[in-house]
Design a protein that fits this description.
CATH architecture: Alpha-Beta Barrel
Number of strands: 12
Bound molecules: flavin mononucleotide
Number of helices: 15
Number of domains: 1
Strand content: 5-15%
Oligomer: single chain
Largest sheet: 8 strands, parallel
Strand order of the largest sheet: 4-11-10-9-8-7-6-5
Distance between the termini: 30 Å
Helix content: 40-55%
């Protein structure tokens, strides 16, 4: 049996040549070896209410679990004898050539992890050539001249003038896509936040440190629970935004094939199959389980992304085999951030990339475009 250090050494031999993989990682016996261990380190460093805010879902957390459990029901059927000495993991995501078919999902409240977290994650995205989608309300992050491919997230406001203005502004600022989140009509019911008397003010000011005494909340989660976000939003928003700008619109939060067809009809350039990481409607279908029907409805007309529960390289192979062109990472980069700051985010992206490369090789595929439906079965 190989010990952990030997395993890491042989893993890094496999990825030798990757500019992302550095020797000091192999030499640190305590370095997390997978994304779950990054979460454990982050959990130790964060205040419970910050950890729970990020890790948690809504109510019974059925959907949060469904996202992960779905990966355990789909199994890969590898092919062999195909010379996988060289494996090319690169992909093109809405025109951006990237080393791996994943990008950073919009996540609000990064300040709960570290001050200046948006800049820190953006720098890590730039260093690893990963596309970054900034969260709602967070604009352009890095200054002019840094070639970060940046997308902007919005929950949309049901008003033509603001939709047009928003789309224009993002295009002028150099955003390469707008990501419209459609599953956010109301603030959802999150038991962990309610139990912790989580204060939404922390999303601006940052969370207390472990052991700090917590003042009584001014804006407690339970009171915010029914807060309307975008209850009157309709597909018209896409018409408005498209009249203000030429940049692609990605519709995030599609679970029903009918919504996929509507998004295409209203001019979306891509969709993401997503249930908001189990943070909106509890009881909603797991993202991977929703993907095949949605991909079938889209029929290759526009790229289909997915997010929810990606923690391993093999998960990305499964998502692509079921029709995704790429996946979004929500909590994973936040665990890297909470564990080791910018370096931690970079490590998480590297680790996932290298696991993905290995999973491709062991499946007998040399290029991302060769991953197909014949490689996967639901058990
Ligand atoms: C702390 C946190 C904040 C989030 N904020 C947003 C947001 O502002 N807009 C959005 O569309 N999705 C948001 N999401 C959902 C993610 O974009 C993504 O859909 C989800 O996290 C994917 O699941 P995963 O965390 O298992 O990768 C958030 C998720 C988390 C964990």
């Amino acid at each position: 049996m190989m010990n952990r250090r030997q395993a890491l050494r042989s893993f890094s031999a496999f990825v030798a040549g990757s500019p992302l993989w550095s020797q000091d990682y192999d030499n640190d016996p305590m370095a997390p070896i997978n994304l779950h261990e990054f979460e454990e380190v982050a959990k130790r460093k964060l205040h419970k209410l910050a950890y729970d805010f990020i890790a948690g879902g809504t109510e019974e957390e059925y959907t949060l679990r469904a996202n992960r459990e779905a990966f355990g029901r789909w199994y890969l059927i590898p092919r062999f004898m195909r010379d996988v000495t060289n494996v090319d993991t690169s992909a093109t995501i809405l025109g951006a050539k990237v080393p791996f078919p994943f990008f950073i999902a919009p996540t609000g409240g990064k300040n709960l992890v570290l001050p200046n977290a948006d800049e820190t994650v953006a720098q890590a995205a730039l260093n690893t050539k990963t596309v970054l989608c900034s969260a709602t309300g967070v604009g352009k992050i890095l200054e002019e001249g840094k070639p970060l491919v940046w997308w902007s997230n919005t929950i949309g406001s049901p008003n033509k003038a603001s939709a047009v203005g928003y789309a224009k502004r993002i295009e002028d600022q150099g955003g390469k896509a707008i990501v419209l989140t459609i599953d956010n009509a109301y603030q959802s019911n999150r038991d962990r936040n309610n139990r912790n008397r989580f204060d939404y003010g922390y999303m601006q000011t940052g969370a207390p440190k472990p052991g700090d005494k917590i003042p009584p909340p001014r804006n407690p989660a339970r009171a915010a629970m029914w807060q309307p976000h975008t209850p009157s939003l309709t597909w018209e928003w896409l018409d408005w935004a498209r009249s203000g700008s030429q940049i692609p619109i990605v519709v995030k939060g599609v679970l029903h094939p009918g919504d996929a067809r509507m998004a295409i009809e209203r001019g979306a350039s891509a969709i993401s199959v997503s249930n908001h990481g189990g943070r909106q409607l509890d009881g909603a279908i797991g993202s991977l389980d929703a993907l095949p029907e949605v991909a079938e409805a889209v029929g290759g007309r526009i790229p289909v992304f997915m997010d929810g529960g990606i923690r391993r390289g093999q998960d990305i192979v499964k998502a692509i085999a079921l029709g995704a062109s790429g996946v979004l990472l929500g909590r994973a980069p936040l665990w890297g951030l909470g564990a080791y700051g910018q370096k931690g985010v970079e490590r998480v992206l590297e680790l996932l990339g290298m696991e993905f490369k290995l999973a491709m090789a062991l499946c007998g595929v040399r290029n991302v475009k060769d991953i197909d439906r014949s490689m996967i079965r639901r058990i």
